[in-house]
């Protein structure tokens, strides 16, 4: 009888150990059951429940039939029962998916399974893209565009370059004023009952201002009564009723690096404005509030604390809405940037002392080209190039006999705080037909195009840096602003 060579025995031994290891850790793990659901009858999300015969880590890879690239869910923790939400689906489309079982360094994939998504909800079927307008789908890049509907029922929608809604969240009782992506790849939303704004047309128009409306009362305009954090699977992580705390947020909110909510809130000051009356007058203004996710107020800053009312010549004129802060952002050093359109300026606020560090704009602290003065601006923030960018509504522009139509634009500045010079980097004026006297926003996309919101005309645009329109989204409502959602958030979120 021939002897088996030692090398062959060693190979057989290694193979046996390897196979045994594979069978123990992976091969012995089997799928017991798969159940598919469509949460909230959504056409854009499919829920997959997987049961195993023994605990293991699981991931799903999925793609639209015919697509070359698989999307991947995060890898779940080691357990027997798993639930996944497959996101960014397209309505009435065939998808294939496979279950990948992970254990230590080994993995095993199932056969391909298939499902078809539901038809789109009728209320979301709309002529979002018009063929007679620019609609290059590549203009927006790989990300999505997020906008909010503040009517009832309110919703948040994310739209791709083809005008297809790829993600949405709907509330059953509130309108959605605005929403923003947080540092931990969730969505922070400001909610309010539809039609609860308090504002009135001012009979006596301030000099040089047309169609001026003032906010009145505590809720004012674009006021929110609830805030909520929503994950990318559409689940509400927490929700706070602000009215129960006698607080009204409005116009903007952000989450800082400590996962705290920073927002603009309505604040007032009692002042003897009318000397003929025995009672004091209530002056309405704004401040910045920091709140944790349980609703505990951590910090408050009020513009009234640093404002010299005795020297304010416009105090009576704007007593109901003196500052009208319409956005808050963080500078690179963590201090606040506030847009105050009544002053046509951006203010930088020391978040510790509360003092105004500088003012940018007409009559501010920086030398700048007068052609770059902005009027009733919105959405000021630091872009990915480190420059300050904003949407210039242009509503306060002095009369120019050479210009028959007013226009809005995106402006970006390189701020030099040593020489106190603001150099204009971008001046992207959108066509006069998209002029919007109120609201609006600008974001510099990763491909250096600009996402601009023409709120009053119901359009969202992508332009180049010269203002040439590359893509237009036709909304059927007034979008307060449209925010860019980078593709990276889907790669970094966790179950």
TrEMBL record:
InterPro entries noted in UniProt = Arylsulfate_ST, Arylsulfotransferase_bact, Quinoprotein_ADH-like_sf
**Key word Transferase present in the record?**
yes
Molecular function terms, GO-annotated: aryl sulfotransferase activity
Q: Which Pfam families does the record match to this protein?
A: Arylsulfotrans (PF05935)
Q: Which UniProt keywords apply?
A: Transferase
* Superkingdom of the organism of origin: Bacteria
Protein name in the entry: Arylsulfotransferase (ASST)
């Amino acid at each position: 009888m021939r002897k088996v060579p030692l090398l062959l025995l060693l190979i057989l031994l290694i193979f046996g150990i390897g196979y045994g290891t594979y069978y123990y850790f992976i091969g012995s793990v089997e799928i017991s059951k798969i159940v598919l659901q469509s949460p909230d009858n959504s056409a854009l999300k499919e829920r997959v429940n997987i049961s195993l015969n023994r605990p293991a880590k699981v991931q799903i890879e999925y793609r639209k039939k015919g697509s070359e690239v698989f999307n991947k869910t995060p890898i779940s923790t080691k357990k027997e029962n798993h639930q996944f939400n497959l996101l960014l689906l397209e309505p009435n489309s065939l998808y294939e998916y496979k279950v990948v079982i992970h254990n230590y360094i080994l993995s095993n994939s199932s056969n391909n399974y298939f499902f078809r998504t539901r038809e789109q909800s009728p209320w979301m079927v709309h002529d979002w893209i018009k063929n007679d307008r620019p609609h290059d789908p590549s203009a927006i890049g790989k990300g999505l565009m997020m906008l909010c509907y503040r009517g009832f029922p309110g919703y948040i929608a994310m739209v791709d370059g083809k005008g297809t809604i790829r993600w949405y969240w709907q509330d059953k009782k509130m309108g959605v004023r605005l929403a923003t992506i947080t540092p931990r790849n969730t969505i922070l939303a400001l909610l309010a009952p539809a039609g609860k704004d308090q504002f009135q047309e001012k009979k006596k128009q301030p000099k040089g201002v047309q169609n001026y409306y003032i906010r009145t009362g505590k809720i004012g305009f674009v006021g929110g009564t609830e805030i909520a954090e929503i994950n990318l699977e559409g689940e509400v992580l927490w929700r706070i009723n602000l009215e129960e705390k006698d607080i009204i947020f409005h116009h903007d909110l952000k989450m800082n690096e400590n996962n705290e909510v920073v927002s603009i809130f309505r604040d007032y000051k009692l002042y003897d404005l009318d000397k003929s009356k025995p009672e004091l007058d209530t002056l309405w203004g704004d401040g910045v509030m920091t709140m944790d996710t349980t609703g505990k107020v951590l910090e408050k800053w009020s513009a009234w604390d640093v404002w010299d009312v005795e020297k304010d010549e416009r105090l009576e004129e704007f007593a109901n809405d003196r500052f009208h802060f319409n956005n808050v952002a963080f500078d690179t050093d963590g201090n606040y940037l506030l847009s105050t359109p009544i002053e046509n300026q951006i203010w930088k606020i020391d978040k510790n002392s509360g003092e105004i560090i500088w003012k940018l704009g007409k009559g501010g602290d920086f030398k700048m080209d007068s052609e770059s003065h902005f009027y009733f601006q919105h959405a000021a923030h630091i872009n990915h190039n480190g420059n300050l960018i904003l949407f210039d509504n242009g509503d306060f522009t002095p009369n120019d006999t050479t210009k028959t139509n007013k226009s809005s634009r995106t402006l970006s500045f390189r701020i030099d705080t040593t020489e106190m010079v603001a150099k204009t980097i971008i001046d992207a004026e959108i066509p006069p037909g998209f002029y919007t006297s109120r609201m609006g926003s600008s974001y510099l996309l990763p491909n250096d195009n600009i996402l601009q919101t023409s709120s009053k005309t119901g359009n969202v645009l992508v332009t180049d840096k010269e203002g040439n329109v590359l893509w237009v989204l036709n909304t059927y409502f007034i979008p307060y602003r449209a925010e860019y959602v980078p593709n990276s958030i889907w790669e970094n979120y966790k179950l």
